[in-house]
Amino acid sequence: MKVFIMSYNTRFLSVMSEMAGTSRHDREMTINAKRQLSECSDPVEKLRLQCLARGSSGIKGLGRTFKIMDDDNNRSLDFKEFLKGLNDYGILMEKQEATTLFQHFDRDGSGMIDFEEFLITLRPPMSKARKEVVMQAFRKLDKTGDGVITIEDLQGVYNAKYHPKYQNGEWTEDQVFRKFLDSFDSPYDKDGKVTQEEFINYYCGVSASIDSDVYFILMMRNAWRL
């Protein structure tokens, strides 16, 4: 029984360690994105770089901002909402530039854009092999299979009681898991839940910081014991 519990603990700490390693790539990506911004003129690429300059969660955070604004839940935005979403998220863009960007995605000229399609286009491209390993990790964590990772899901996969901050009494078990989920969540709207879309958006950001498919897949397999 002790060996089984320690195996859980080793897995959990392994994931935390891999995520800490990822933060180094995150910093490099942030620096590179900021440098490329000064040379970029394409509106879509410019927005992508502004998001990546915020780290792996940048694009996911913009998606959250748009979702909050979607009061009628029709998953579409008009230009006024689109502009407000960019401003609320702190994206620096001239109005004419934002207009050009909006028109690029408003393909049917309806005055509305589907922000899911918008975010998919905005994501840095991932190879098929990378997408497959990301989805394997998500399915492993989503124990209930409802498309959302929660604290309850993690309790079925990892044992948090060997986390150093749990052992020294600083955090409760739920706080350990919540901190873990916060890593994938938007910094501006942490709800303790991670959807499949947010998980993919997060790893699209991570993927953008890692050139090699082999390294990315190895990192994912080691982190999630796939």
UniProtKB/TrEMBL annotation:
MF (Gene Ontology): calcium ion binding
Record has Transmembrane as a keyword: no
Record keywords: Calcium, Metal-binding, Repeat
Domain EF-hand: 57-92, 93-128, 129-164
Name of the featured protein: Calcyphosine-like b
Species per Swiss-Prot/TrEMBL record: Seriola lalandi dorsalis
